[in-house]
Specification:
mainly beta; 3-stranded antiparallel β-sheet; about 35% strand
């Protein structure tokens, strides 16, 4: 069984595509094509992997930090890749539910911790221009007082030299 179909655009299953055994078992939650690489988010470990899009082979691209729990969504935004899920750390770096990588796999400085609520998970997000809208089971985003958000929040991706800033939008 092939988990991912041919990326040539003809939507025919490519019999030569064989995902690496690290990806082949378990539940894949999201996939994002970044150049010639597929970023794969999973519910089980390894939670985030990068494989060759054309062959499914393990990629030479090594992430500088791997998440300690599930990835729900992955999206490329220019030269960055945004990941969201139920993680609290990426390697030795604290990143609570939301993180940014460069397209070459380097973890970026981005401090928007998500907290409160039941499982505090970021379930989904959308990017509109330079704004990241997140949704999930959380009641607070960012550091400091006055950051209460009822399961929806908007974050500027360009504020603070690309480190992010919580916007006043609070439906």
């Amino acid at each position: 069984v092939h988990l991912i179909t041919d990326v040539a655009g003809d939507f025919v299953v490519d019999p030569a595509f064989t995902p690496t055994s690290v990806i082949a078992n378990g539940t894949v939650q999201d996939v994002e094509l970044v150049g010639s690489h597929l970023w794969v988010g999973r519910i089980e470990a390894p939670f985030l992997s990068v494989i060759e899009a054309g062959t499914g082979a393990a990629n030479a691209l090594t992430l500088t930090a791997s998440p300690n729990n599930s990835i729900r969504q992955i999206t490329r935004a220019g030269q960055r890749v945004i990941v969201a899920g139920n993680f609290t750390n990426l390697g030795q770096n604290s990143r609570d539910k939301l993180a940014l990588y460069s397209t070459d796999g380097v973890l970026q400085v981005f401090a928007m911790p998500v907290s409160g609520g039941g499982n505090r998970e970021v379930e989904t997000f959308a990017i509109v221009g330079d704004v990241l809208y997140i949704g999930g089971d959380f009641t607070s985003v960012g550091n400091g007082a006055g950051n209460a958000r009822n399961r929806l929040a908007a974050i500027s991706l360009v504020a603070n030299n690309g480190r992010g800033a919580l916007l006043p939008w609070n439906p």
